[in-house]
Amino acid sequence: MNNQFEVLIVGGGNAGLSVAAQLLQNKSGLSIGIVEPSDKHYYQPAWTLVGAGEFDIADTEKNEKDYIPAGSTWIKDAVATFEPEQNQVTCKSGAKYTYKILIVAPGIQIDWQKIKGLSDTLGKNEVSSNYSFDIAPYTWELIKNFNGGVAVFTNPSTAIKCGGAPHKIMYLACDYWRKKGILDQCEVHYVSGAGVIFGVKEYAQTLEKVVADNHIHTHFGANTVAIDGKSKTVVYEQKNAEGEIVQKSLNFDMCHAVPPQSAPDFIKKAL
Ligand SMILES: Cc1cc2nc3c(=O)[nH]c(=O)nc-3n(C[C@H](O)[C@H](O)[C@H](O)COP(=O)(O)OP(=O)(O)OC[C@H]3O[C@@H](n4cnc5c(N)ncnc54)[C@H](O)[C@@H]3O)c2cc1C
Known about the structure:
- It is a single chain.
- By secondary structure, the protein is α/β, with parallel strands linked by helices.
- It folds into 2 domains: 4-107, FAD/NAD(P)-binding domain; 110-262, FAD/NAD(P)-binding domain.
- It contains 7 helices and 18 strands.
- The strands form 5 sheets. The protein has a 6-stranded mixed β-sheet with strand order 5-2-1-8-7-6.
- A hairpin with a 5-residue loop joins strand 15 (233-239) and strand 16 (245-251).
- The mean pLDDT is 97.
């Protein structure tokens, strides 16, 4: 295989594929390599709708090969290290590729382990997350079978993919419970590491109304640190009036958790 490209793209997800397609649209014949280890492409935005019972999870998984823009080269490998002095990357297989322009688009890493107990209980004990292809359908099982009680939705304090996803599923759940006639028996809590419902003022104003209409209890600056599925407890840290960080907890009948997220480890090591 050719090891030299005018443009080398790390990651063949939504960003990498759309950048490649647009570059080729502007300049056909451009030599573009896309380094992407996965056989499958996942359309993650639809996972919220899967969790809300409106979309089939199978339809969010496609073959990567069908989405590689014609004219570009798919390198089925993962980048391990960057050698910018040589305009080069080295892949896990040991293969090296050089470029004139490098585009880095490997997405964001999900750090499940940063919430104590979450990995052990995910997908069972009434704990779910739309942030996983395997688990998102379980969110719908929980919402559908909920007959009232305490529902907790968490949002981490880190940057995340889709700032709306942690609360969109909460509004969709409330809407379903309203239609089912049980919303008044549901005590819904939003435990968020952020300071406001949404960072853009215009949207926040509308969302505050949605929160009020659904009688959602909001906890801001509240960083979820542990989820225990067996005792059905979410533990979070929040500053008290004196500015000290204190631990608080909520018991739940169902919990939708959004894990902390960060740059992929191979990017962190490259900095
Ligand atoms: C539940 C949920 C709901 C969402 N809802 C919305 C929404 O409503 N609207 C919206 O705009 N966005 C939404 N998003 C966010 C959206 O999915 C992401 O913003 C988008 O997928 C980001 O594209 P990306 O290409 O940067 O990353 P990804 O699509 O995650 O792709 C990254 C790619 O990089 C590859 N990769 C990883 N490591 C390497 C490596 N070492 N070498 C080479 N390749 C590597 C991966 O295999 C992957 O294919 C949602 C996300 C989730 C999880």
